[in-house]
Each structure stands twice: as C-alpha cells, then as structure tokens.
Amino acid sequence: MAPQRKPSSVSQNISSSPFYFALYVILVLLGNVGNTTVMAVVGQSLLRETGAIRSSDVILVNMAFSNLMVSLVRNTVVMVSDLGVEIFLTRDMCHLMMGIWVWLRSANVWSTFFLSAFHFQTLRRVAPPIITLHGPRGPPKSLILCFILIWSFNLIYAIPAFIFSKNGDENSTETLMLVSSTTRPLMGCIWDFPSVYSGLAFATSSMVIHESLPICLMNITNLGSLLTLYAHGHSRNTTHKSQDTPVITRIPAERRAAKVILALNVLFISSWGTNVISVNYFNYNRGSSTEFLLIIARFANMSFIAFSPIVLAVGHRKLRAFIKSVLSHITSVFG
Questions:
Q1: N or C: which end of the chain has fewer CB within 10 A?
Q2: Residue ranges of the alpha helices (H) in 170-250?
Q3: Please, what are the domains in the chain?
Q4: What pTM was estimated for this model as a whole?
Q5: What does the DSSP assignment read for 235-267?
Q6: pLDDT tens digits, residue range 47-98?
Q7: What are the record keywords, sorted (predicted)?
Q8: H-helix or E-strand containing 328?
Q9: Long-range contacts for 141-148 (Cβ within 8 Å, ≥24 apart)?
C-alpha cells in the first residue's frame, strides 16, 4: 500500500469547497461521537440492570453499533481520502474491504428496520410478557437469534463483494455503484464482475433486497404501530373491551417510542431514498447531473448515521439525562 494524492473529481469538488468539506467533517464526527455515546450510555445501563433486561435497549445498542461500524470503516475513510490522501490496497485487501463494506451497510439497514418491527410486535402482543425473577439474566434467546440471522444472512449476501472486486490505480473510475457499498472507488477498490449484465443484476437485487424492501417494511410496521396505539386509545373510551385487544400498560411511553421510531424512519427513508435515486441514476442514466447527484448521495449516505443519535436522545430518558449532565458540567466550567 502506498499513499497517493490524486483524489477523484467528486472528492475534489467537496474538498475544494470549505463549506461542503466542513459539513462533511461535522456529519462524520456526529456519527462517530453520537453512536459511541448511545452505545456507552445505553450499554452501561444494561450492564447495571438487576432485573429483566429491556430488549428495546439491546436493539438500540445493536443499531448504534452497526451505525458506528459503517461510520468508522467507510465514512471516516472517505473523509480522510477527501483530505487528499489516497491509499491503494492490494487485490486481496480489496476483496476483504469491499465485502466488509457491503456486509456492514446491509446489516445496518436491517438492524434499523428491526427496531421498528420489534416495537410493532410489542404493541401487538396480546398477553403481557412473562418475566421470571430468578431466571437467567440477559436478553431473550429469540432476540439473540434475530441478531445472528441479521448479521449472518447479510454476510452471505456480501459474498459476491468478496469475490468480484479488484484493486485499481489513481486513474480508475467506477462503472457500477451500489448504495450498500460504494459510490466511488475508495482505496483503489472497484467492482470486477464478469460482465456488465451480471454487475447490473447484482445492483438490481441489492436495490430490491436492501433498499426497496426495508423501506416498505418500515412503513408497514410503523403504520401498524400507530394504528394499534390509536385503536387502544379508542377502546379505552368504550365500556366494552375485547380479550384480543393488545395489552399496552404504558400508553404514554409507547406513544413517545412510536414518535421516535417514526422520526427515525422518516430520517432513514429520506436519506436512503435520496441515495438510491442518485446512485441508480448513475447506474442507468449517465446524464449531465451525475456528478452533482453523487455529491448529494455522499451526504445523504451519512445523514441517518449522523442524526439518528440526536433523534434517539430526544426520546430516550437515560440519553437525555446524560446529555443534560454533560451540558450542565460544561456551563459550570465555562460559566
């Protein structure tokens, strides 16, 4: 590996504009610091729990972990590259990094959807959860199984990236872009499919499996959660209650959770959707707006990772308490 100093044209446009580059650095730092904070605060509260562990907090830690991994392994490297330092990897290292990028990005999408799906399943539960005071401490086995399935299935999906990639040089250009992996050559790594059609087939399957399907499922589960809360609130005003009505004992808390998850979904869909449109425009219609759209895709790609910790902090009690404590400490020091 040898450092070079010939950034791509999109990278040049961003690094040449102080505003764009400053905004890019701020988003990357927000993603790194914010998701680390979520993992530390929520994870510490889980370790201190003496009773049953909240499954929702475990899911938040998993989502923050996937966000942080994408931000560190992908977005931070892109930021360093925009500073003008290009590192060109060997062919074997490109196989490894392309696979890791696809794996982490795909797992990140489904980890985000899992939060919405879990909340919907919780609201639809007819019977209250069974909590054993003297049972084994830790998250439910079914939750651990879901995490294993998310990370293992996405690793299987990423196998083509471990195979059909290669190392290029400073003159290499990307001929195929995937939202789940790359929007330009990074560290000299580019796709190397046997044919154009096989590359587009993989890009299309990625668009369906990891872009369109999660967004549709997020909309369905979030709408279902809101309708369930509405139905339960309406049933409380009537004298007759069906036995099949979901048991929701903490309506105000569940409504706050639904609003936070809705905000996360809107943030994810807006950033993901912008990225999808920009990248697929490049793949299927190389027009005059390609370069500008790729810059938009770059910012949209990291906006969810950067802002999701802020959304979580608004709705999570312990995160709010931690931020208030930090702010009060800062004001006392500089006040």
A1: C
A2: 196-207, 213-235
A3: 17-126+138-239+259-334 (1.20.1070.10)
A4: 0.82
A5: HTTSS---TTS---S-HHHHHHHHHHHHHHHHH
A6: 887 666 778 889 999 999 999 999 998 888 878 877 777 777 888 888 898 8
A7: G-protein coupled receptor, Membrane, Receptor, Sensory transduction, Transducer, Transmembrane, Transmembrane helix
A8: helix 317-334
A9: 143/55, 143/58, 143/59, 146/114, 147/62
